[in-house]
Structure of Cytochrome P450:
Amino acid sequence: MPETVPERRAIPKERSQTCPFDPPATLRELRTQDPVCPVAMADGSSGWLLTRHEDVHAVLGDHRRFSSRGELRNSALDGQVTAARPARPGEINSVDPPEHTRLRRKLAGKFTTSRMAQLSERIAGIVDDALDTMELLGPPVDLVEAFASPIPSLVICELLGVDYAERAEFQERTKAMLTLGASADQFMAAVEEMTGYVTKLVVAKRARPTDDVLSNLAADEELTTEEVSRMGLALLAAGHETTAHMLALGTFALLRNPDQLAALRADPDLVNGAVEELLRYLTIAQYGAERSATEDVEVGGRLIRRGDVVVPALMAANRDPERFGDPDVLDVTRQAAGHVAFGFGIHQCLGQQLARVELRIGYKALFQRFPTLRLAVPPEDVPLRTDSITYGLARLPVTWDAVGL
Ligand code: HEM
C-alpha cells in the first residue's frame, strides 16, 4: 500500500443559513473525491475524516482497532475541550472494554425500550405542561426556550431523581455547563462545579435511596461515588442538549417541509418513522465519535497509522447515496433504519430509546396542540448553533392562531 504524506485540511464545520439542514457542502465533495481525507486536529495531531457510510460503520464497529480511550481522543471542533486527557472514573464514552463493558452493563438495563415505555406517561405529562405554558404565554414564543430545552431537562431530572425543589437550580447549572462561547477553562470549571453538585446528590441517594436511576447506581457497591457521579453527569450532558436540539431543529425542518408535516398530521402513526428520518436527515451529532487507531490499519484504501485519530462524519454517512436513496430529501415515510445518528457499535447511544420516546411524544403533541404553528420570522433569520458538538438552533421564534386552538 503506498504511503502518502498528505496535506491536512481543516475539518469542515460551516453550515449554510440558506440550507440549514444540510451538512457542510465540502463533506459531499469529499465523499466522492477523498472519502478518507487527511485532516488537522485541533491540537495539531493527524486525523482522518470519514464521509462514507460504509467506512463510518466499519470503524465504529471495530472497537479493537479503533479505540475510544480518553487520552487518545481529540476534538474535531476548535475550542472544544476534549483534547488529550485521561478518562476519569465513570466516563463511559472515553473507555474501551473491559472497563466500558463494566460501566455499560451497570447502565444498560435502566434505558431499555420497556423501561422507556414505562416512562412515557410521565414524559407526556412534562410535554403537556410545556405546551400549557406556551399557550398561556401566547404567540409568539421562542420554541427552544419554551419547549425544546425544558422537556429533556425535566425528563432527565425525573430519571436521575432530582427533587422538584432542586430542579430550578439543577437547570441553571446545566445551562451554565452547556453554555457555548466559554473558554476551555470556563467550561471545565462549570463541569467540575456540576460534578460537585451531582456528587452531593449521589451521597444523599446513598443515605436515602429513592426509586430512580441515580439511587440504583448509588446502591451498587461495585461502583464508587466518583464513578456514579460522572456517570450521572454523562447522562445529563449527553441527554439534555442532544434531544433539545433535535426537538427544535426537527420542528424547524417540518415547518420548512410542509408536505412532510401534512403527511404526519394526516397520519400521526407515521411519527415513529418520521423521528428516524429526522434523526438521519438532521444528524445533530456532527462530530464527537472520534476514535484512534490502535495499530496501522487500512480504511478505504488509505493507511491510517497507529495513534492517528479517525473522525467519522456521521452527518455525511447519513447522506450517503450509496446507503440511502435521494439522501438529501426529507421523507417521513422512508425506511431510515441503519442511520448512524446514534453512532454504531459498542458505544452506540445508550439513551437512544429515551430520545426516541421524547421526540415521538414531543412532535406529535406539539403539532396536535398547535395546528397552525408556523415560523414567526423569515427562515433565514432563525439563528443556528454551529459552535457546538451537536448542531441545533439558538432560538426558534414561532407563532400560531390563538383563537380556536
Ligand atoms: C453516545 C447521539 C440522546 C446518553 C452517543 C453517541 C451518539 C449519540 C452519536 C455515540 C458517541 C460515540 O460513538 O463515541 C445522541 C443523539 C441523541 C442522544 C443524536 C438525541 C437525539 C441521548 C440521551 C442520553 C444519551 C437522551 C441519556 C439519557 C448517551 C451516552 C452515550 C451516548 C451515555 C455513551 C455511550 C457509550 O459510550 O457506551 N449518543 N444521543 N444520549 N449517548 Fe447519546
Observations:
- The first helix runs from residue 25 to 33.
